[in-house]
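Sharing in case it's useful to others searching the archive later.

Someone asked me privately for the predicted structure of 5-formyltetrahydrofolate cyclo-ligase, so I'm posting the question and my answer publicly. Question first, with the sequence:
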Amino acid sequence: MIGARVFCITTTALRRSPIFFFPKIPTRPVFRLSPATRPIVAMSTTSKNQEELDSIFKQKRVVRSTVRKSLKAMDPSLRTQQDEAIQKTVLEAPWFKSCKGLCAYISCKSLNEVDTSKILSEILQHPDSNTQKKLYVPWVEDKNSNMRMLHISHMEDLVANSMNILEPAPVDAQGNDREDVLQADEPIDLFILPGLAFDRCGRRLGRGGG
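And my answer, the predicted structure tokens:
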């Protein structure tokens, strides 16, 4: 993703998970490789380096705990206002209007993620239009959280998984495998990714899932 401009729409610093944008990326997205295809690299870590890493991980755990508590205590009406404001900003942005292919997450209310329902509905409301954007959304394919991004055309393509998070079924209504973004004919213009928190420089803190 070298050279891509990064857009980070925040609400209150370290209080609300914003959306992270990587528009106009001319390369394919990078996903976690399956164990069979991962390269094996021999690495050694000195005791000092390990102590530094442990300190960083500890700090991140503290920040995650603080942010989760703030999100849980957040007033629902304020959350709704911020969700709507963020989605409005995205939908009106020229880089969103001009994009042809994108990957986006499906928000999960129980995780206090920024709502993306209006964005997804806007993308999918005219599936047969010449200006239709091609949308890929996450599908977790195994217990190791290996993820693929699969193409959907309708909200009805989504089903709730074991954690009650919406994701695409791996095959469509006709029994055909859904297109994987790695096999897409055209490059992806835009990524909409979740994050637990961001600082004012746009640096992202995830949920610790790797």
